[in-house]
Design a protein that fits this description.
The complex is a heterodimer of chains A (390) and B (194).
Chain A (H helix, E strand, L loop, with lengths): L2 H15 L3 H18 L6 H26 L1 H28 L2 H10 L3 H31 L10 H25 L18 E5 L6 H14 L4 E5 L2 E4 L2 E9 L5 E7 L11 E3 L1 H12 L6 E7 L1 H4 L5 H11 L3 E6 L4 H8 L4 E5 L4 H16 L18
Parallel strand pairs in A: 1-8, 1-9, 2-7, 7-8
Antiparallel strand pairs in A: 2-4, 3-4, 4-5, 5-6
Helix pairs in contact in A: 1-2, 1-4, 2-4, 3-4, 5-6, 6-7, 7-12, 8-13, 9-11
Chain B lengths: L4 H26 L5 H19 L5 H13 L8 H21 L3 H45 L6 H36 L3
Helix pairs in contact in B: 1-2, 1-3, 2-4, 2-5, 2-6, 3-4, 4-5, 5-6
The chains are: A alpha/beta (390), B mainly alpha (194).
């Protein structure tokens, strides 16, 4: 919408809302001018007639109601003010609906220095077809499952659940895609200008064996004399069920409780777990006490760390101050792209725990290659160092 | 909000809310289904609470409202001020409730109650804006006279409005609790039960 019609529209709206007959007359006149200025070539006759009819109906009904309760003269006056006000409002909104589009709003967001908002609005528009398709698929699936043409009313909560879960998955994919494409307007890397060492990322779903794999690799690497430090998070089990996690310092062998399962209702940070300070303190000590240019192992980085919480402050400090030679991290596969973008790592080796026995060899090979590709062992460290891991 | 995730979650869940407003909302409005506004408000509460439970970031509910209102611009009915202000008002009250309670079930219930309670109040406000104070007073007197014809004397209009708002708030609290429960199931579905 051009500036002059926009100006007359705004003034018309303000004037129409004032409790004064001359102001409302001015508002209607300006609303008419807005229509003429915005649509100089094709006057929207039908839309204007529709607005006049609607305003006249509302004004007439109001005039009758007020006349019945407060007298004929008051009824006529109120009816006239309602007609003028409502007609001005309808004319302005008619023009706005014909002239306003997504590109205008996107440009407005950019002009107001709100690029994130503009990109979010663009993402919302682009997602509409995907969401519509997801809704259709969920509807059909439920209908098939209930062996009817349409799902029953009692199936609607499940339909909502499926659609909402699908929306969250699309949001995660969009996050990863934005991170990979380096949309600097959407994120600012947490590490800034700090150079990031080579990263070996061990990925897999929860409970698939990332921590045992990292423990086995850490044992082998320690025996070979690599200056290992950091921590892993072994799971705690009772009667075959996971009830929590503890932190194991790889250099000193100390352990501390990190999290206890308490259920979604009482969990912290949107998880099922309640977290313990002593676990975070031990993890912090584990990553900050290592030698410079050592081999840092961090298990595991999750959604909480991606939000800047959990272990992230300690890991951030370790990466920027201790400058490890190689970093080995455990994380879930769907968070890989987002974390790599946050780290700004350029040399990355991804090892999927689903590779089985080959995963251990892949991790060891990646670490060895990173050290042998010009990465020096820190002074004073020998290959005879050992750590207690049990 | 330094992390990009609040923006993508707000964009997607706001898009879902807007899509439902564009489709179901337009159909209900055109068909003049009674209490369509309350039904759409309940759908909005479901989207707001679920997104907030999945990613409890301050400001995300408000951003979802902006996204959904943005999509409402493209409604079949055109630039509809009423539903847009309703969407923004609903997002604002849910944002306040969830932020004040730390994104908990209490916030979902409170936010739902406030969101649906604002629906009749918002319509009343819209009537006041269009008709003006004197016109609204005239309507109120006329309604009182009609109520008197049926033997209902006293401050009938105010009682009616309060009763309707109270019922809407109760329905909103139920919607908020239901939304929190569905959000929990969505969370479990996404995290594979771990």
């Amino acid at each position: 919408m051009k500036r002059l019609p926009l100006l007359t529209a705004v003034v018309a709206l303000v004037a129409a809302l004032l409790p004064s007959l001359p102001a409302q007359l001015l508002g209607l006149a300006l609303a008419g001018a807005t229509v003429l200025l915005a649509e100089p070539r094709s006057f929207p006759t039908r839309a204007v007639l529709h607005s006049v009819l609607l305003a006249a109906t509302a004004a007439g009904a109001t005039a009758l109601a007020v006349a019945w309760s407060m007298g004929l003269q008051r009824g006529a006056y109120v009816g006239l003010t309602v007609f003028l006000r409502l007609l001005a409002l309808l004319l302005v909104t008619t023009v706005a609906s014909r002239r306003l589009d997504a590109d205008d709003l996107h440009l407005l967001a950019a002009r107001l220095h709100l690029p994130r908002l503009g990109l979010a609005l663009g993402l919302a528009l682009n997602s509409l077809p995907h969401l519509a398709e997801a809704g259709r698929d969920a509807w059909i699936a439920l209908a098939v499952r209930s062996r009817r043409r349409r799902p029953r009313l009692r199936h609607l909560p499940r339909l909502a659940e499926v659609l909402l879960a699908h929306t969250a998955r699309i949001a995660e994919e969009a996050t990863a895609a934005a991170a990979l494409r380096g949309h600097s307007q959407l994120f600012r890397p947490l590490l800034g200008a700090t150079p990031v060492p080579p990263v070996v990322a061990v990925v897999g779903r929860s409970g698939t064996g990332k921590t045992p794999l990292l423990l086995r690799c850490a044992t082998v690497l320690a025996e070979r004399g690599y200056p290992l430090y950091g921590f892993v998070q072994p799971a705690l089990s009772e009667n075959g069920q996971k009830v929590g996690f503890e932190v194991l310092d790889l250099r000193t062998g100390r352990r501390a409780l990190l999290a206890r399962r308490v259920g979604l209702e009482h969990g912290q940070h949107g998880t099922q777990f309640q977290f313990e300070r002593e676990g975070f303190a031990l993890a912090r000590a584990a990553v900050e006490a290592g030698p410079p240019r050592g081999l840092l192992v961090v298990d595991e980085l999750g959604p909480v760390e991606l939000r800047g919480g959990g272990h992230w402050p300690a890991v951030h400090r370790a990466l920027s101050r201790r400058t490890p030679a190689v970093v080995v991290i455990g994380l879930r596969r769907h968070l890989l792209a987002a974390f790599l973008a946050e780290l700004g790592a350029e040399a990355v080796t991804v090892v999927d725990v689903g590779m089985g026995d080959a995963a251990e060899a892949a991790v060891l090979q990646a670490v060895t290659a990173a050290f042998s590709s010009g990465v020096e062992l820190p002074p004073g460290c020998t290959r005879g160092n050992r750590t207690e891991l049990e | 909000m330094r992390d990009i995730r609040p923006w993508t979650y707000a964009a997607l869940f706001g898009s879902l809310w807007g899509a439902v407003e564009l489709s179901l909302g337009t159909v209900l409005s055109a068909a003049r289904i009674p209490f369509a506004g309350l039904l759409m408000a309940a759908v909005g509460v479901l989207c707001l609470v679920t997104a907030r439970r999945l990613y409890p970031a301050v400001g995300m509910s408000l951003l979802m409202g902006v996204v959904a209102a943005f999509l409402k611009v493209f409604s079949l009915g055109g630039f509809v001020i009423g539903p847009m202000t309703g969407i923004l008002a609903e997002a604002t009250v849910v944002e306040l409730a969830m932020t004040a309670t730390g994104s908990t079930a209490a916030g979902a219930i409170t936010g739902g109650a406030l969101a649906l309670a604002t629906a009749p109040l918002q319509q009343l406000l819209w009537v006041l804006v269009v008709v003006g104070g004197e016109g609204a007073a005239g309507w109120a007197r006329a309604l009182s006279r009609v109520a008197a014809l049926f033997g209902w004397r006293g401050s009938a209009t105010l009682q009616l409005v309060l009763a309707f708002t109270g019922a809407a708030a109760l329905a909103g609290a139920v919607a908020g609790a239901f939304s929190w429960r569905v959000a929990g199931r969505v969370t479990r579905r996404l995290r594979g039960g771990t």
